[in-house]
Amino acid sequence: MRVGLVQMTSTDDLRGNLEQAERLVREAAGRGAQLVCLPENFAFLRREGLPVPCAQDLDGEIISTLRRVARECAIWILGGTFPEAIEGDTRTHNTSVLLTCDGAIAAVYRKLHLFDVDLRERGGGAFRESDAVAPGKDVVVAETPFGVIGLSICYDLRFPELYRAHAERGARWLAVPSAFAVPTGKDHWEVLLRARAIENQAFVLAPAQYGRHNPDRESYGRSLVVDPWGTILAQAPDRPCALVVDCDLDAQDGTRASLPVLAHRRL
Q: Among residues 111, 129, 218, 247, which one is catalytic?
């Protein structure tokens, strides 16, 4: 199974972001990827504290663009996240959408854990995602021809119980589209992703934002694909790019058979 990750440096330029996303998705598809994953906030990344003028529903321009590309390239696409409008609420959901190769919506996940942290003592910024974003309510997995995918977003990575819930629902893949801050990224990004892979014997797909988005926001990058043993199969360089890698599902079955930790759980 060949997968692709798109790493971007998104800004508040919706049109430019969509054009870059489409170009990189098509590049990954041209290199044989059957599933291509975009990062968190791929379509719009605002400055902290500013409104989101492009909030829209699942029929809006952002998801419609991805549905068209999925059909034209005949690939599955994980639409990182986009700002989903909420009727009667000034806030949005931070929403990830999985699309089939026919452009149909296979699953919708709204971020559960919101990033309300203060990293100024570590050289980063202060963030209050909950001021502008409403949390989701549901654990979401999706059936695909290449196995069940568990959906998550960025800060969710710090809550292992979510990924165990994915594993209990049969997940072979864990998707973690992200925009990790630099201070936490350099110390925690790889460690946490490998831990989630090892704990659940799943492939982890972590497309990330990279670089300086605006004067107030910078992301760590280093998009990763991790196998069920915890081995890093591929890591993106420090620039926007498409990363393509082969994942061996038979080897995953072997890992789960020889070290059956999921079957040995007693709690």
A: 111
